[in-house]
## 1
Amino acid sequence: MENEAVLVAIDVGTSKVVALIGERTSDGSLNILGKGAPPSSGLKKGVVINIDQTVASIRAAVEQAERLSGYHLESAFVGIGGSHVESQNTKGAVAVSGPRKEVSHEDILRATEVARAVTIPSNREILHVLHRAFVVDGQEGVHDPLGMSAVRLEVETHIVHASATAVQNLSKCVHQAGVRIDECVAAPLAAAEAVLSDNEKELGVAVVDIGAGTTGLAIFLDGAPFHTAVLPIGGNNVTNDLAIGLKTSIQVAEDLKVRYGTADLAAVEPEELVTVETLGDGQARTVQRAEIASIIEARMRELFEKIGSEIAAAGHGGVLPAGIVLTGGASQLGGVAELGREALQMPVRVASPTGVGGLTDHLLNPAFSTAIGLLRWAARTIDQEDARPYPAASGSGAIGRLRDWLRGLFP
């Protein structure tokens, strides 16, 4: 596979673990070669609470992806969520070195190190130090100062950090599953890679990734990340509300949410009835679908209020001309975009991941945005020349069997 790079992403979520193996070809396209998405256990609200169960879930996802692709997975870009993920913006300035007074890679690195030298508690671990913009001798809005003549270089960075113990526990699970970590990536930033356009990022936009246990938020201004956070509320909260309100089991409540759920109460006919199995005696009873919609609407409205508060607290006046882009599994509930527009008073749309080909069956929907975003992050991060070659797993998966057959014909 000359001039091709094999990349791997693992999204360890509350409801499922997704492992993707992708190939970036010489023309820049990204194709899915293998995927695994078994149910997840051992996590709560994006944080590991049981090592053994989490390891088993990751291992199952990896094995599924390996069987499909014919590759043996060695290392991966891993998404990390949980409400412990936080961010801040910092600045650093240095004098441009060298006799020619031209900005060099070393100058950019020194300025970045100054910006990075902020006081962060010892129980926090920095995940990302991302450049937002540069100021060259007072000239603002410079995106790439390399080679420019200057005396003073200033950089504004977006620093994302997380609980050190949460990162260590997730890393331990991935390693015990037999996978090395190339990079831990904040899940909201990964989701943004999959669903946001460069134009939206330039105008000002927020991606809201509504998962099962948490909701990730990433705000972009002037083409760069401005605020990253994770809220401890997600689709499971809706399910729990339904289970309590309708006096039924979690399993039945989840099924009702998927089959009949909507956040648009006005769209439900008052006479529409739904059969619900009562918790305990297992007897069936009928409830109005409007009751289900009312419970869902209340919880989703609360979520949007929290999102609005987070956007306002991030600063910059909370003005986002490109609005809100919803993604994640729970964003597929009917009426969510309409409720978001009403609650936040700004444009809201639901987005599926884009920019990949290959084995995309069932992947091009909002539930897989973070996983596909991780692959796109990897493709953007790793140069093809430096991409680690993955040994083929002999005879495993359709691609592996085809490759072995061809080798038999042409030894």
## 2
Amino acid sequence: MVATLKETPETNMIRKHVLKDIAAYEAEGMDTDQAFREATFRVFGCPPGTYGAGVAELVESKNWKTQEDLGNNYIRYTGHAYGKGSYGNHKPETFKTLLSRMDVTVKNEDSREYDMMSCTDYYNYYGGLIVASKTVRGTLPFAMMGDSADPKRVKMRTTFEEAKHVLRSRLTNPKWLKGMMRHGYKGAGDISHMMDVVLGWDATAEVIDDWMYERIAQKYVLDDKIAQWMKEVNPYARQNILDKLLEAISRGMWQADDDMIEKLQEEYLEMEGQIEEIME
């Protein structure tokens, strides 16, 4: 184990932190073996036999007010330690100690077949880690995304840069949208789900700028051709996109101008009326 190598703390940061934590745990009354075990936990996850990180559930149900709500729920779900002598024991304070030192976070992807906007798990786990770190530290960590789809040309981007990359290369790419339109109801539903993920990423990692929301609104709500297509094949998908854009505005995540707000509200009310007619 790296922490037990006979190296100076200045050249072995893991050992430095472990020794510091051992001293703190011993001061709390733990014996040396207990303190060492507590100080060397590095693998944390959800409770045994469960799946999830507790963030997507709050975002999707709108059952949160602040980022601290998301971060604390991530810690509650994910603060279970795994390792020798601990099969998912709940140790949120130990987890918080590690989060407090988390200056940088990294998540690697080895394929371009999917990306950070593909499903809620991405922001649920990685976005959740970022917001949990901010909850403990008070500031966002330096969050990175690795792209090793081509092992000979590995790329590193900040999470914000990756969000911009995905927005331009996929979400607002006319060729991608044309392909989704061929799938009718399912294609519109997948686009709508993408908006759920966009909101989740911004809620956790603050990676969506105003111009990005603006571009999504212009493409999927205010473009007459796309609007008509969605109304015909899946009005529920269009309503959800409008709902998420308005939620971003109401939470202060998107500083939209008054004209945009009015347009979105009008479109949302129109969709509500259309859906009520369908349900009669």
## 3
Amino acid sequence: MRKKQHRKLNPKNKTFDKYYIINYLEMGKGWQAVQAERDESPQEAGQEDWDDWQETAGATAVCLFCNQHSVETTDLLEHMKQKHEFDLDRIKTTLKLNFYKQLKVVNFIRRRIHQKMCFSCHQVYATQDALVGHMTDSKHIQDIPDNTEWDQPEYYIPTYENDTLLFGLPDDEDEVTVSQTPVIAEETKVDIQNSILRDVHIRSSLSVT
């Protein structure tokens, strides 16, 4: 009886890429690179973990629309505002987004950009550059769709593993607002007529000899 042969998919065949879960990917890495890292030996993994720990302080956040990256999230938000006319602070204020809803919006946009799909008109483009060009020219980049599209539990999950931008999102709930209004003590009316200090004997017992 002939032994059944087990064959593996050709890694260069792009036909099956659409079935690969994008949450297994990392920014700037293809699935083959990620798979190679997962198949490494425990000794190599330990060394890699140590290297990652050493580089944590230098982790950079990546722009939603291009490859621009920055260690400071505020610098990256300013880049998106100036370069792509995407103002996350304005969107947060207009839509009254708390931290978790900001998280969903960012993950939603990441997913659509990965799919090369305009999140406003749902048109799909061949390249990310073509998509971003369309969204910029049409001002769709400023048009966040109705929350029925992005306010879904699935967008709690990052599109890319280790998306540093998510860690730098502002959380207004962490800010403690200190009231500047002075506190004025309530006036208390004292009934002098019924005070025990009107008793001569009590006053004499309290007097200092």
## 4
Amino acid sequence: MNGSDWPSPSTNLSMVEEHIKKIVAATGVDVPRLVTGGSSLATLPLPLAAFVSLTITYKLDKASERFLNLAGPALENLAASCPWPSMAIVAALWTQKVKRWSDFLVFSASRTVFHHNNDAVEQLLRSCFTATLGMSSSSVCCCGGVASLLGHGFGSHCSGGLSPVAPGILYLRIFRCIKDCSILAEDILSLLMLSVKDIAETTVPRQRSDKLKKSKYGMRHGQVSLAAAMTQVKVAASLGATLVWLSGGTALVQSLIQEMLPSWFLSVQNLDQGGASGGMVYKLCGHALAYFAVYSGMFAWGIDPVPVSRRRERVMRSHFEFLASALDGKISLGCDLSLWRAYVSGFLGLVVECTPCWVQEVDLKVLRRLSNGLRQWSEDKLAVALLRRAGPEAMDAAAELILGSE
């Protein structure tokens, strides 16, 4: 692309770069440099260059409109799958031809920042959590909630050109291009725990630790009640479950519940270094994981007695067996005991109240073991409720449990 046989994109590359930086500014992701200086020329892979040369020569009239409507998405997808900064170069070329398409082309180019950079995707996910919880320092995402997560789309309706885009909008445009969803789920789980840790730190009494008044996101939070903290925990868990379900569907949810969560509990997790929060971090993290698991299962398989997939029964049987084996002492856990107790009580409590049909898909012997374990924790009401949800077959076991507790 020397500017004679081809139009040169160099005149617009700087503008495209600045607009991309502005769009992703709310995510905190660093945009790779487009303009390197020197004598190096912007280049495109040969298949993409051929496609661009074919489409860019068409006149913008009604006769060619049908062709461009067909070729446009194909060109965008091809450029997005090519190495960086192919899509940015295409945007710079087409912006010279059709200036009114500039916003759309630049926004499409901004998405490709995340296609080949796992660190950028992780940073985008982090921004989704901080925006939703109101912990972001960005003016676009400082209010919290869905409004901060999704914002108001994108465009140049504000002064100064393109406005920053909320992280949720960017993620909705790039998640289909993420290749390794298992790593993505691990990142979501890790970010959920970090978010809950930050929430827990704001509940610590003021006199206990002045250092915790300022969160790691640079914002100063007032002291909030435990009820308010639990509300934030539920929001974080629902966001995490939504991201997992959206990114990988039922297969990723199955992997999360059957493999990732058990592995996480078996490993050592140091979430409260120094014990500054008095164990609050572990308790809230346990509840967050309970909501995270139940929400993910509800998104994937629903709560109806007749499951949309037989996979739900296999996953629930496997997870309940893991819980029972850990309560029996057959499995040695690496996580904190208060976290584990909060998770088990929270998970089973949510299942009993919200998804009772899941209980009926679990073997009665496993439910007996779970009830005995809950009884050792003085969770008699939950133990009885769990057996009651199992149906008439479990009434004998429930009666024995009630009589044994008297």
